Here is the input.
Amino acid sequence: MSTTDEDVQGHYLTNLSVHTVLFTIIESELVMCARERTEGPFRFHWELPGANPRMQESLEAAAHRSLSEIVHGSSAILQQLKVFGEPDRDPQRRSIAVCYWGAIAPEHLQPQPPVVSAIQALAESERFAFDHRTIAITAIGHLKRALCNSSVVTDFCPATFSIRDLHRVYEVVFGTEIAAGNFQRKVRSSTGFITKTNTPPALGKGRGRPAEIFTNSRRVEVSPPFHFPHDS
Here is the structure.
């Protein structure tokens, strides 16, 4: 079958982009970086950070570049999420998006970062541009599974942290109370999940013992995994 001008033109006009869902926790709420569009289709709708890959640039490097005005340096650890390429995802042209996701401590964000509540992402279907709500929901599901199966929770924390800090992340993301004792035993028994530091214990607000301070230098799998209720 011969290639028509229309086929050539359609192929030429296909747009490749990279979008990133970056999670953090601010004021005890799970949020993701997103900003309001100021022009074009979906004006005043939320849009995830994105970039078009340069000729000699890897997709992951483009994902990090999409965060350059939001994150200090390249401190976010990103994982590829999924490719989104439904024919109608962009009303103006054929568009394919390779998406990544990651988590970061709020200390690594630029001042006043553009963020959106994850709860809003689930509830307000009309506020997102293109298929970015679908991308966000998919990323939330990946985040919850990763929290059950790995030590990705430490990405939400600064270089040093307490087990209480990790516990707080799980309760925020899963929206439920988690038994602190069972959680601490699980974390401590998972080899490589945390490494104790020489930092003096931090005094808490209550009457309990001062919290030990830990760090983490690598991502490890958790087996058997945590089991928390989640719907994605």
Observations:
- The mean pLDDT is 89.
- Residues 132-149 form the longest helix (18 residues).
- The chain is about 25% helix and 20% strand.
